[in-house]
């Protein structure tokens, strides 16, 4: 992040010094925003950090600093939940990437601009569609008394929406559109000439994809993948409204611990789990941003 | 392309796979919606009935929870725009050094999942009764958690809306020359507030609407923070009612979906090619 500051500085400073007058009060307008974020976001963040590293002695009420919460957050049921979340997010994101790519390609190479517009607009809407209504739509479709479950007798065939794969199918509903939105600009950037050049050199369609298109798309694909992973990883409402806490997911564990559904005194472990989540999400962003920049090199 | 003989097989094959891919996608995305509607009108043993929809208005808690969500949304939109618009305009005009700072600050909520945010928020709220019960500050803690209008939710939603509002306003400001516009207005004798309100804001109309709609959709659908802090706006109410009245809760979901989608679609067509994408799933 600091690199961005130094990079942008000379030009911006020069631009600012040309017109001196507005500069004086400029930062004043930014102060309320920063103050607000410090209060509404910074305070909880500090509280989370502090809580993750403290324990309160139930007898004396004294608090002391420790890494016990962090250690507890990567053990036992919490570790299972964390791995469950990672596995669910990875599988859902991987599937969404694999399924979203052909859909995006179908739209990009389509001869009908109206189709393209419709799919992209719908994707924008669907990518924002998560949470409670999504869960209920799938409960009504594939749940125990859902329409498809009843019509096709899926329960007898071993179908269970409230399972790992059930959740994957539900998550795909907002992850695939997100993938389409993420990858479309990259697919747009593939030059027709590249394909023609490959064909003139005798390459088959498969060879073109393996040796030209996919390597060029790789950073965008990976970037999309981690973005989807982060999105699925942070999701809570869908799973909570659908399965309660029957599937081990870290978001559900945190919610349980906060609301005191499990053991008393686990609140700080919940904060440690939250910190784990933030670290993973931060890692995702740290992977995503450089990839984003890298993909711009070929596809600008 | 047409003149290349080797190109023909490659151009013919997509004619087959493209409709197939689109049909599969259409099926996957439309079936749950259709099934939800069928689920609400086709009650086993009763046949087709629209009771689920006609009951909605009369159901206990529907009006109050919806009103609460709408009030929260209005307050959130007002606060987020009041904070962001002056800041973003000022960044363009005279404080470019702060631009990366604001960019990072507005991207931070994306790195912190809502559930982690609410865990921290809940901890802060507990400080009130634990440490501050003898100070006047305690009254503030009580006031922000007033169940009739939980200000703490507005604070949380503003933070969560920051990334989207930032993106929307940034796109809007990029499309116009703020500096020239303000200088022109100033040369014509306008003072600063006049220049902002009469020259800059009308040009930002699209971006402002964009921000407002995205924030509205976010607040109406938000479940995590409200539920864990123990408040009962719309999304929490639907989940609570789903246990006893499955048909009704799906019916309300379908309606709220249609309203949200109509809003976002209107926004998409209004904003032309402006993307409404975000990573706010679930």
TrEMBL record, chain A:
The chain crosses the membrane at residues 27-49, 88-108, 120-142, 162-187, 208-236, 269-291. The keyword NADP does not apply. It is found in: Cell membrane. It is a multi-pass membrane protein. It comes from the Bacteria. Residues 82-288 form the ABC transmembrane type-1 domain. Keywords: Cell membrane, Membrane, Transmembrane, Transmembrane helix, Transport. Its main location: membrane. InterPro entries: MetI-like, MetI-like_sf. PROSITE patterns: ABC_TM1. Belongs to the binding-protein-dependent transport system permease family. CysTW subfamily. This is ABC transporter permease subunit. It comes from Streptomyces akebiae. The lineage of its organism: Bacteria, Bacillati, Actinomycetota, Actinomycetes, Kitasatosporales.
Automatic annotation (TrEMBL), chain B:
InterPro entries: MetI-like, MetI-like_sf. The keyword Nucleotidyltransferase does not apply. Pfam families: BPD_transp_1 (PF00528). Residues 66-267 form the ABC transmembrane type-1 domain. Gene3D superfamilies: MetI-like. Keywords: Cell inner membrane, Cell membrane, Membrane, Transmembrane, Transmembrane helix, Transport. Signal peptide: none annotated. The chain crosses the membrane at residues 20-41, 61-89, 101-129, 149-169, 207-230, 250-270. It is found in: Cell inner membrane; Cell membrane. It comes from the Bacteria. Its main location: membrane. It is a multi-pass membrane protein. Belongs to the binding-protein-dependent transport system permease family. This is ABC transporter permease subunit. It comes from Streptomyces akebiae. The lineage of its organism: Bacteria, Bacillati, Actinomycetota, Actinomycetes, Kitasatosporales.
């Amino acid at each position: 992040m600091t690199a961005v500051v130094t990079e942008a500085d000379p030009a911006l400073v020069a631009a600012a010094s040309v017109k001196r007058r507005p500069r004086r009060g400029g930062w004043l307008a930014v102060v309320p925003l920063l103050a607000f974020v410090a209060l509404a976001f910074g305070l909880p963040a500090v509280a989370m950090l502090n809580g993750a590293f403290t324990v309160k002695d139930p007898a004396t009420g004294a608090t002391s600093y420790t890494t016990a919460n962090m250690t507890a957050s990567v053990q036992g049921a919490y570790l299972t939940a964390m791995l469950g979340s990672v596995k669910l997010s990875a599988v859902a994101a991987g599937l969404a990437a694999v399924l979203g790519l052909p859909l995006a390609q179908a739209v990009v190479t389509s001869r009908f601009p109206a189709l393209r517009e419709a799919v992209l607009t719908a994707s924008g809407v669907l990518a924002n569609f998560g949470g409670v209504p999504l869960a209920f739509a799938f409960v009504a479709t594939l749940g125990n008394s859902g329409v498809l479950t009843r019509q096709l007798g899926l329960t007898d065939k071993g179908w269970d929406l409230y399972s790992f794969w059930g959740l994957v199918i539900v998550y795909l509903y907002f992850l695939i559109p997100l993938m389409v939105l993420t990858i479309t600009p990259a697919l747009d950037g593939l030059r027709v000439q590249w394909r023609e050049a490959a064909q003139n050199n005798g390459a088959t369609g498969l060879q073109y994809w393996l040796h030209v298109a996919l390597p060029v798309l790789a950073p965008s694909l990976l970037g999309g993948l981690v973005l989807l992973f982060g999105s699925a990883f942070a999701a809570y409402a869908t799973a909570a409204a659908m399965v309660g806490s029957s599937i081990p997911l870290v978001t559900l564990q945190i919610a349980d611990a906060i609301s005191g559904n499990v053991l008393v005194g686990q609140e700080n472990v919940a904060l440690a789990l939250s910190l784990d989540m933030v670290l993973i999400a931060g890692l995702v962003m740290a992977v995503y941003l450089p990839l984003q920049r890298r993909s711009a090199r070929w596809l600008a | 392309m047409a003149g290349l003989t080797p190109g023909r097989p490659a151009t013919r094959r997509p004619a087959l796979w493209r409709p197939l891919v689109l049909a599969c996608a259409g099926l996957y995305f439309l079936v749950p919606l259709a099934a939800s509607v069928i689920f609400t009108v086709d009650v086993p043993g009763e046949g087709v009935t629209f009771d689920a929809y006609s009951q909605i208005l009369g159901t206990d808690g529907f009006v109050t929870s919806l009103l609460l969500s709408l009030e929260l949304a209005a307050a959130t939109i007002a606060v987020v725009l009041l904070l962001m618009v002056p800041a973003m305009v000022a960044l363009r005009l005279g404080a470019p050094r702060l631009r990366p700072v604001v960019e990072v600050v507005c991207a931070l909520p994306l790195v912190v999942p809502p559930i982690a945010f609410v865990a921290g928020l809940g901890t802060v709220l507990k400080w009130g009764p634990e440490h501050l019960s003898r100070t006047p500050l305690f009254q503030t803690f009580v006031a922000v958690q007033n169940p009739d209008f939980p200000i703490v939710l507005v604070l949380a939603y503003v933070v969560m809306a920051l990334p989207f509002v930032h993106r929307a306003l940034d796109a809007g400001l990029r499309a116009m020359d703020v500096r020239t516009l303000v200088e022109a207005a100033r040369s014509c004798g306008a003072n600063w507030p006049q220049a902002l309100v009469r020259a800059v804001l009308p040009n930002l109309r699209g971006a402002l609407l964009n921000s407002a709609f995205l924030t509205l959709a976010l607040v109406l659908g938000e479940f995590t923070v409200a539920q864990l802090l123990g408040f009962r706006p719309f999304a929490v109410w639907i989940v609570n009612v789903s246990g006893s009245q499955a048909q009704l809760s799906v019916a309300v979901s379908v309606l709220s979906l249609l309203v949200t989608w109509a809003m976002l679609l209107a926004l998409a067509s209004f904003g032309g090619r402006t993307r409404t994408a975000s990573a706010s799933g679930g």
